[in-house]
User: Which sequence fits this backbone?
């Protein structure tokens, strides 16, 4: 946990608390990563291009897939206010829906 009691995957400007224990590792395209709770793991994964998620050895069954599925519906840096209409500001699910009309 960081100095504020949140997991390493929690972005410094994301005001939300952790939800549960640290159970996943989220890696970016160059294999830099952070361990996190499912909540912050999903928010981090949603904010990365070509990110990946892996369950830690003692994680509950399905933790990584839950993070992966949640991230699909979360907008990158979702805690930032303001109009968000560019494809890079929408969730992957929203972008797929725009192209499947």
Assistant:
């Amino acid at each position: 946990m960081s100095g504020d009691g949140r997991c390493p995957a929690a972005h410094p400007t994301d005001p939300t608390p952790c939800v549960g224990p640290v159970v996943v590792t989220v890696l970016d395209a160059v294999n830099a990563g952070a361990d996190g709770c499912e909540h912050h793991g999903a928010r981090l994964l949603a904010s990365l291009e070509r990110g990946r998620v892996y369950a830690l050895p003692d994680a509950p069954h399905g933790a990584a897939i839950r993070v992966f599925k949640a991230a699909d519906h979360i907008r990158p840096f979702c805690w930032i206010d303001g109009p968000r209409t560019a494809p890079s500001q929408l969730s992957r699910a929203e972008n797929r829906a725009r192209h499947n009309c």
